[in-house]
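Open question from group meeting: does this chain pack into something compact, or does most of it stay loose? Before anyone orders reagents, we agreed to write out a predicted structure and look at it together. Recording both the input and the output here so the notebook holds the full record.
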Amino acid sequence: EDGKRNAVLNGIPDWVYEEEFSFNRALEFSADSKMLAYIRFDETAVPSYSFPVFAGSNPHITAFEKYPGDYTYKYPKTGEANSKVSVHTFDIKSKVTRKMQVPLDADGYIPRIRFTQDPNKLAIITLNRHQNRLDMYFGDPRSTVCKQVLRDESDAYIKEGVFDNIIFYPENFSFVSEKSGYNHLYWYSMGGNLIKQVTSGNYEVKEFLGWDADDNSFYYISNEESPLRQAVYQIDRKGKKTKLSSQPGLNSAQFSTNMKYYMNRYSNLNTPTVITLNDNTGKVLSTLVTNDNLKQTLSKYSVPQKEFFTFKTGDGVSLNGWMMKPVNFSASKKYPVLLYQYSGPGSQQVLDTWSISWETYMASRGFIVVCVDGRGTGGRGADFEKCTYLNLGVKEAKDQVATAQYMGSQPYVDKNRIGIWGWSYGGYMTIMSMSEGTPVFKAGVAVAAVTDWNYYDTIYGERFMRTPKENAEGYKGSSAFTRADKLHGNLLLVHGMADDNVHFQNCAEYAEHLVQLNKQFDMQLYTNRNHGIYGGNTRYHLYTKLTNFFEKNL
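Structure tokens returned:
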């Protein structure tokens, strides 16, 4: 009962763990429900961050009508102190609390704890601060003794998605690793011995779905057909592989506990989501969701359609993209181009999946909208994804510039009217690309952008950059400040003043930098809005602002 705001958290993660290790519950019951295990976070030494909160509206805070308030919480920026973490167990019957003896670096992480099917085995996963060494221990919740059963190491970093692909069975557990250069499935005994590598090849296993004990077969999702697509596969006990999903596009699956049935959810560029119930041979038993009403509604409109393309940059790198042309496109006309991207490590925007968005709207307004996944993005193996390690933003910006140059060389494009925009990492990339030194962008919008990795959190920032002390040159080269003098084109900065993720500090300090360099720019702030910038009329205002900005400038 020692929990205290901004000091000690029991059983729930602190801010940075929740955001970057993607979980919100740090407590687990044993299989027999007799023990409770939890992670304790001591965030006393973590520096605090504060931002002002105004009365605002939607919601309106009456208490702050005359004097604004503030919000203060623990946020560890790159190189700063993290929470000190420990694992504890609570015996529900005897009410005894014990501390697990798990070996952990003084600055190490515990991104997951999970009880196995054996109530006497608590799995504890640890990472070193560099996040390039993962260890898994099995701990006895009563004796507190922990035994190491697995270690995975990387020259760069271990991806965050690894934790949720570990599934425990009575005699085995699964593990997904990039050690071969691509994400693949490995099968271990509960003693930690590798029994076999289940999948191999130049493709990525996206998710392990489960193992059928009856016939010793494995089910998983991979992008073996193409980095743009995902399908459901089965591998039987003899190693024979069967593709279960029949529709090309993005498939995901949810299996029944006995692995005999699954729900398949799929869409592709031209097909809104369809959900079917299948047996484990892939046979469709029933269609649960067709989205026919949506298809009918869409048939009444002229909706711009995405088409895929691939091109080679000057660096000889082949990149995948999609393009949306206006419905009444004419090859004899010259169109403005709007680049949309996110570009963050391991992310993918170019996928064979259905969506309709503001980009669709902009294509209907006479823009050619383009999205290209540059170096550092996912789906193409570890080398392609991790080539930006220690130097974020440099290769990615080059690739967006190369995209603009490629589009500018098309006969139907006005190369003097090319814009770029993005949100969060995409906002950072907008600024980095407009300041790359090649003046190809006439205008850009950076929403909620990181401008310097010194301002971002430990887990995400250091995963890709290590600490500012260890990688001073990398931090300098990855900063929007360092290249601010090269900013070319009309820039609109947009930020929510209550962004607890990418702090408004990023925007404020970068804006000040531009002022002192005598660089003109536009800026739109949103009172009391967080990283998502929504609430009341806010989203509509934001996208109207973006639309007007690009129509005026391009």
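Observations to bring back to the group:
The radius of gyration is 25 Å.
The longest strand covers residues 413-423.
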